[in-house]
Amino acid sequence: MPNEPDKWFFDRINRNLMQLHAIEEIVYSGTTKFQKIEIIRTGAFGKCLVLDSKIQSSDFDEFVYHESLVHPTLLSHPNPERVFIAGGGEGASLREILAHKTIKRAVMIDIDEGVIKVCKEYLPEYSKGAFDDRRTELRHEDARAYLEKSKESFDAIIMDLTEPIEEGPAYLLYTREFYRTVNERLTPNGLMAVQAGCASMVELLNFSAVYQTLKSVFPVVLPYQADIPSFGGPWGFCLASKGVTPPSPEEIDKRTAARGLALRHYDGTTHQYMFSISKPLRQHLERQTRIITDKEPLYIYGQGR
Amino acid sequence: MPNEPDKWFFDRINRNLMQLHAIEEIVYSGTTKFQKIEIIRTGAFGKCLVLDSKIQSSDFDEFVYHESLVHPTLLSHPNPERVFIAGGGEGASLREILAHKTIKRAVMIDIDEGVIKVCKEYLPEYSKGAFDDRRTELRHEDARAYLEKSKESFDAIIMDLTEPIEEGPAYLLYTREFYRTVNERLTPNGLMAVQAGCASMVELLNFSAVYQTLKSVFPVVLPYQADIPSFGGPWGFCLASKGVTPPSPEEIDKRTAARGLALRHYDGTTHQYMFSISKPLRQHLERQTRIITDKEPLYIYGQGR
Amino acid sequence: MPNEPDKWFFDRINRNLMQLHAIEEIVYSGTTKFQKIEIIRTGAFGKCLVLDSKIQSSDFDEFVYHESLVHPTLLSHPNPERVFIAGGGEGASLREILAHKTIKRAVMIDIDEGVIKVCKEYLPEYSKGAFDDRRTELRHEDARAYLEKSKESFDAIIMDLTEPIEEGPAYLLYTREFYRTVNERLTPNGLMAVQAGCASMVELLNFSAVYQTLKSVFPVVLPYQADIPSFGGPWGFCLASKGVTPPSPEEIDKRTAARGLALRHYDGTTHQYMFSISKPLRQHLERQTRIITDKEPLYIYGQGR
Amino acid sequence: MPNEPDKWFFDRINRNLMQLHAIEEIVYSGTTKFQKIEIIRTGAFGKCLVLDSKIQSSDFDEFVYHESLVHPTLLSHPNPERVFIAGGGEGASLREILAHKTIKRAVMIDIDEGVIKVCKEYLPEYSKGAFDDRRTELRHEDARAYLEKSKESFDAIIMDLTEPIEEGPAYLLYTREFYRTVNERLTPNGLMAVQAGCASMVELLNFSAVYQTLKSVFPVVLPYQADIPSFGGPWGFCLASKGVTPPSPEEIDKRTAARGLALRHYDGTTHQYMFSISKPLRQHLERQTRIITDKEPLYIYGQGR
Lengths: 305, 305, 305, 305
Fold this sequence. Notes:
4 copies of one chain form a homotetramer.
Chain A: E1 7-14, E2 17-31, E3 36-42, E4 46-51, E5 54-58, H1 62-76, E6 82-87, H2 92-98, E7 105-109, H3 113-122, H4 124-127, E8 136-139, H5 143-149, E9 154-160, H6 176-185, E10 186-198, H7 205-215, E11 220-228, E12 233-241, H8 249-258, H9 268-275, H10 279-287, H11 300-304
Parallel strand pairs in A: 6-7, 6-9, 7-8, 9-10
Antiparallel strand pairs in A: 1-2, 2-3, 3-4, 4-5, 10-12, 11-12
């Protein structure tokens, strides 16, 4: 018994479900202007970035999350050059984007400079120098306000945000009004991707509402998912565009090679796994009627949980 | 705070990870000749059958588990008539098997009569009368000994067993020796399916060892997975045969209709989701060298955990 | 690991502290008109009566609680004949009162008839027939309203109430206004006792505020405590009177014998343990300035916790 | 919910009972030659010294523990000059001892130099310079071997040890053989004190066995207890001597003043609280038949738990 773990991180999935992670070390703990931030080394997943008590990334499976968020969108575009990222403080989405040889410019806006400082110091292997890449423009301001006043067009826009919590920094980046702005800032062949929360059948409000909200704006919206064990199960994403759809699995593998990518998670078969949504999820996603708006935003605490 | 759940079931995934379920009611609690048995009503998943502290089935997602275990195998066979089930005390695998109009005989052997009694009384909606179907032959003895001395051949053999724990009732039903017996009892077009434990990247020993052990016996072995939230994430299965492989997604949907099945989880698209194994899992499964034998059985507690 | 307890009851002491009890059985679970009620059999303390998620009594140490609440007061009175009890649904305070041969009448008012029904059925060894004693008058109404309109005088008044929680059934029985009514209903030599919540140094708001509130009404107020392990540590009580004080330890033992009592916890030495308040508690109790009133009642959730 | 504590330290009281402490910070975490050592800042008790997963001291109540361990013994001696301490790595027992103006020499032996280093750096307010006092002789070796070969006599010997766990550093300092050595090293008016583990009715094996083992060696053995909330409830101690007993409460207060002590917990009334053992504890202590010997040592994990 003396050797059993004695310190546990409680990750609440919902009111009736928690995942407990054995804590080996609290590498960093602090508060930024916007949120509580911690780097916790867990026994199961290594170092985890934790914002406002929710795990954002872990050593063990951050490659699954970041490859899933970035590559379906970038490999669906024949020649992506300009990319916009909202959030993504670890720098790992940026790292995956810059790995595409075609990329000429990546504008990343994360409102919370504090998160990036901590990640640079404690998780440098996540960004692998991406912040210092000459193609990167990093800004700390409100991503929505920036896009609203920008005249630039992007081949891809990646939403790597924390979940929408009341008074949190991200909840107004999940609304129909914002998605319309995103649509305006995309080139005709452009695509957007968004992480959309838990994709376990037991907790689908966020995923399904984001999906329906995107459908109210974009002609093409494809939901997909991948298992992220440190998040407690499958995680949802959506890809949206004005018309472009992903290529075949074979073409995915070809483009991956042509772009010089060395991927650990995403390939043609993984794409089929991620984009083949099982019947009960499909039904749940289609039956959702909730549209997220500025007036009626969605908070995962309280309403969803 | 007074309204927060105050009673929790601790499901240990491994040494460093637990899933906690809010308990609403302990519907039944007892001990059979072979194991501890409980029916716990949880806040997230409704009634759960719990054997030796592991959730076996829940109201919420038992259809995912039982459809995933049974239908890929039965729909891969053009005309299954005779089926053998080892384990499956809830009667839900039997229910799914008997739903195929082609079935003429189903032999189910669950060593633990106590489990079946409790399930009949407290979870009758799981078996839906399957135990009383005239095609069913139910026996309480050792499934391995039965198959070893039997001369009968089966179109499908379904392994719906508890996980292999030391001195538990099932650990000798996961070995190469036993799989050879299964192979001998299959018709030339016959297939077998086995539930193979956790399929989360964080805990793959059982899944990968079962996969490799089957590969040492059968010419065709296909690993697949489906998310079962009440089990804490994706769950692994293997389909094995002397040569038969699953039909195309379109053919799956056709056969489902032709057999008169009304499925909630499994269809052609779900098949693609389940049988498309993501890259890191594929690598882990292929790299496993452990073969489970009578002399060196696998226990998920201790060794795996 | 399979033999480790897997079901736990979470008892929140305060925001930063919880006691977890292994659950062996949920003997009863329901809701009365006033509160959630459960009988939980725990591994450490046997059956526990739990109201609104707080343990009220356990097989293991209910004798400590009920003897501590009743006997210091009754043995401080030379000849108690008439006693009033507010709360005390288990019937165990009543049991201890009726054990005094001098008692001629015991009026017990517990607003929650549902609690008494459940206790009679599932915890009959707590009341040991006390509800059927011809000296008992049991009523289900508001104890405060009853005392306000009553003209009867009592030798002892025992407050065996649940803790004051917002909208709970008891919070208006902890106020100065109510204690004044109690004072009016006591004979000149009468005494009252009240359970006053946690007496651990880490959580003294309730105990100290009840103490000071009583001091604003009664000339004599003596705080005392006893360790009740199932409650998570030492528990506080107050004895109050118009002038009477407890006798010497020797006299306590004499009166105990003379009254025909067979006590397991309380005697002269235990009295010294309970009424000798350690220095930091004494200081905390004396320094408290909070007086509980109808207008500013105390809730242990929120304010105290 | 986002503001609820999300990191918890699990303190196992026994198989069926745990106390959970909200973690604010892991100030230090490491391993010495002998044990795992951590300084954890908890929400309820401030910084806690944790050895092998058991809390040894906390900011909140270390004064209760250390005053309880040291002063009953030192104030029972009319003029203590020479004191021996086994264990006590925080330096707080040493601090309390040196506060007595009469003390001329304090020999402290803690086998684990690593603990003292960490405490000096992270908990300097516990030792308050006591390690640098010219009266202190600090040694890192086996306390038992030292006393066995020493010829020196002491007025008081203080056992401030971790609990006896298998292969832990302290289990051979709780045996009858060792207590005989202690007896030989005491002056005729000398006294010893030992912390004796949990004094909650629910877990009395350690306390009662230490008590009975001391009684097999010393003519006078007095058990006493004090509530230490960070330890999860009341904690047990024993005072033993060749004949000396504690003075009256009034004399305790007089000697405290005469020695120049400014105590926060211990005084005459606190003494009565601590040394008045409640009836069920008394009975349990007296009925224990277990004597701890070198051949049959006591381990609190396994046997006791």
